[in-house]
TrEMBL record:
The keyword Hydrolase applies. It catalyses: Hydrolysis of (1->2)-alpha-D-(4-O-methyl)glucuronosyl links in the main chain of hardwood xylans. InterPro entries: A-glucoronidase_C_sf, GH, Glyco_hydro_67_aGlcAse, Glyco_hydro_67_aGlcAse_N, Glyco_hydro_67_C, Glyco_hydro_67_cat, Hex-like_dom2. This is Xylan alpha-1,2-glucuronidase. Residues 461-683 form the Glycosyl hydrolase family 67 C-terminal domain. It comes from Paenibacillus cineris. Residues 133-460 form the Glycosyl hydrolase family 67 catalytic domain.
Length: 686
């Protein structure tokens, strides 16, 4: 048994399952293949089965082909599968990370096979089998093959070495404390298990804002510790990445420049890369935030982001490392009096002209929207717009703008919309999910990354139901075609067991929650309206006259940002024509993004038939009622869920209710005073 930590095991918590207890196949396991990752798979399998059946399965060596009543965990090259089981094409199709799970009682002698080309495939297959067992799926003629759609499925930590987490709402870092690595790594092991079980294969452990101490992570002082974490990850098929400070050659190397075209700078990074790979032979590479929010970058030297990233890429290339270069580049010191600037334009304006100039081991990491992880914003027009440059999508699981894990806000529905968004880059059917998985352009590396919502809280995510975002992200990164319903149902059963009342109440809670949160916060896609700095709670004009470029332009006549080509910022022109036309015209612009693209009078009538002002009033009243319904549903689960988790969610829902009322009253009052238009339903607005 592995030394698991005492933290909540989340969706890996197993409870006794009587229907499995009698299954003979679960009493013995034969393993074909040998590696650390296979050992992890075996440990997970024995642990899970023991927890579910009460019996520790025996490990048997080399049983003959006819032997029955066992699980065969097998590398395909070791076992040589009988032809009738899988044709060659299907096996090839499993690739490096896919697997097959089969059980044919009649000709397999009652054995259950988990088969893969690689040890990582076996690990993923094992977790899938455990899911099948835990959710009580039919085992009789099991015939599953699966492989991930996205080559890279990453988590980005924004952890600082002092133990704090930028935009963290679930406690302190699980990696760092007092400017060192934590000593007890049981929690990190559990974390690696959770991540591998949802298919994550790359993790950047430190904040993209790389401060002085974290700059040192790539020095001999800390590389042994980094290597230790990389070792824990490796056993779970995960490669470790580091966020690096672009100015490291100056801060660590004593150079007087970080100019990417100065050969001393390139040489410094080459030496540095060599050093890192001495410690971590499978090091994933660098995540870089450059020229953004006061971080250093190539702009200082009048160089482009292609120059900057290629220089790093060259250093990592001999070792197979990647440079993940973030596109969150904009002017955070802009003059708000100058209405011709529009922050939404920035990523596209900076990067699109550089298409084709990046080295094959550079990937551009693009936030889902052109602004910054708002509850609702348009999809970034940069996605799909660079045929000659690897791209990956960036989501934010940590709920910076979506209630900071005090409010329930299930983000899977939002992510589904974004993944399914048709960019029209290559005509109809060029959805974001196809672009970033490499299905449209011949990308060398690509996938999805997300800013994680995990800290050292007992339940990892602060709000226990926020675990569903973590789980859902991993599942979607593995397969963006999974439905919201599938993911939600699976997560609930794995996390809380098979009580049907629990599923019946939590499913609609999760399904409604994004919409509920959106209703009582900023309306119709306009975003922001939060307190500056920490981004929690309502403040309509918090950012209105600020240099950050985030405005709603509300006055007594109307509200919204005119981003049209006709007489606005022209942002709309960055989309492919089908989307540009849809957003440009008031008639076809979808209601939920109306104020993201247009400035309209309060009396403007939406497709819903309501005026903008009445929509604002109605949704804000509805939003609070929505939270009351969430509480009503959750209250029915008392006694059906353990006390700790029940209280954890109950308390947060009540905080949410209080704060939803505050949002409602601040927003409604603001717009009532600005517009002077009373609520048609005559409700109290202050
Ligand atoms: C903003 C966050 C800030 C991050 C930045 C980023 O407020 O803390 O550093 O994004 O993504 O949303 O770099």
């Amino acid at each position: 048994r592995l030394p698991y930590s005492s933290a909540d095991q989340g969706w890996l918590s197993y409870t006794n399952n009587e229907s499995l207890a009698g299954m003979k196949e679960l009493t013995q396991i034969a393993v074909y293949g040998n590696s650390d990752v296979i050992d992890s798979a075996l440990a997970e399998l024995t642990h899970g089965i023991r927890e579910m059946t009460g019996t520790l399965p025996a490990i048997v060596s080399d049983p003959d082909r006819q032997a029955s009543n066992l699980i065969r965990l097998a590398l395909l090259e070791e076992i040589g599968v009988p032809e009738e089981w899988m044709d060659a094409a299907r096996i090839k199709d499993l690739g490096e990370e896919g697997y097959a799970i089969r059980r044919h009682p009649e000709n397999g002698g009652g054995s259950l096979y988990v088969m893969a080309n690689t040890d990582r495939g076996l690990l993923y297959g094992t977790f899938h089998l455990l899911r099948i067992l835990r959710t009580g799926q039919e085992l009789d003629r099991l015939d599953v093959t699966d492989r991930p759609r996205n080559p890279l499925r990453m988590m980005n930590h924004w952890d600082n070495m002092d133990g704090s987490i930028e935009r963290g709402y679930a406690g302190r870092s699980i990696f760092f404390q007092d400017n060192r690595f934590v000593e007890d790594d049981a929690r990190i092991r559990d974390y690696a298990r959770l991540m591998a079980s949802i298919g994550i294969n790359g993790i950047a452990i430190n904040n993209v804002n790389v401060h002085r101490t974290e700059t040192q992570l790539i020095t001999r002082q800390f590389l042994p510790d980094v290597a230790n974490v990389a070792g824990i990850f490796r056993r779970y098929g995960i490669r470790l990445f580091l966020s690096v400070n672009y100015a490291s050659p100056m801060e660590l190397g004593g150079l007087d420049t970080a100019d990417p075209l100065d050969s001393r700078v390139g040489d410094w990074w080459k030496e540095k890369a060599k050093e890192i790979y001495e410690y971590i032979p499978d090091f994933g590479g660098f995540v870089v935030k450059a020229d953004s929010e006061h971080r250093p970058g190539p702009f200082t030297y009048d160089r482009t982001h292609a120059d900057g990233s290629n220089m790093l890429a060259e250093a990592l290339e001999p070792f197979g490392g990647l440079v993940i270069w973030r596109c969150f580049v904009y002017n955070c010191l802009q003059n708000w009096r100058d209405r011709s600037t529009d922050r939404a334009r920035a990523a596209y304006d900076h990067f699109k002209p550089l298409d084709g100039q990046f080295k094959p081991n550079v990937i551009l990491q693009i936030k889902n929207g052109p602004m910054d992880f708002q509850v609702r914003e348009a999809v970034s027009p940069l996605l799909g717009a660079m045929p000659g440059t690897n791209q990956m999508l960036e989501f934010q699981i940590t709920q910076e703008y979506t209630g900071q894990q005090k409010h329930l806000c299930y983000l899977v529905p939002q992510w589904k919309e974004i993944l399914d968004f048709d960019t029209f880059a290559q005509g109809q059917g060029t959805e974001v999910k196809k672009v970033v998985s490499g299905g449209i352009y011949p990308y060398r590396a690509c996938g999805i990354a997300a800013v994680i919502n995990v800290g050292d809280d007992h339940n990892w995510t602060g709000h226990t139901l926020a675990q569903a975002n973590l789980y859902g992200y991993g599942r979607l990164a593995w397969n963006p075609d999974l439905t919201e319903e599938d993911i939600t149902g699976e997560w609930i059963r794995l996390t809380f067991g098979g009580d049907s009342l629990v599923s019946a109440e939590i499913e609609p809670m999760l399904a409604d929650s994004w919409h509920v949160y959106e209703s009582y916060t900023s309306p119709l896609g306009v975003g922001w309206m939060v307190n500056p700095g920490h981004h929690y709670g309502p403040n309509v004009d918090g950012y209105e006259y600020s240099v950050w470029g985030t405005y709603h332009f509300a006055d007594c006549h109307g509200i919204g940002v005119n981003r049209t080509v006709k007489d606005g910022t022209g942002f709309v022109s960055q989309y492919f024509p089908e989307n540009a036309q849809r957003y440009e015209s008031l008639e076809s612009c979808p209601d939920e993004l109306l104020l993201f693209f247009h400035h309209v009078p309060y009396s403007h009538v939406l497709h819903s038939g309501k005026t903008v002002i009445q929509h604002i009033y109605d949704t804000h009243f509805d939003g609070v009622e929505g939270v009351e319904q969430l509480i009503g549903r959750w209250s029915k689960l008392e006694g059906h869920i353990d006390e700790w988790r029940y209280r954890n969610v109950w308390e947060r829902l009540h905080i949410q209710l209080d704060h939803a009322k505050e949002w409602r009253d601040v927003i409604n009052t603001y717009f009532y005073r600005k517009s002077g238009i009373p609520d048609a339903a005559g409700r109290t607005i202050y």
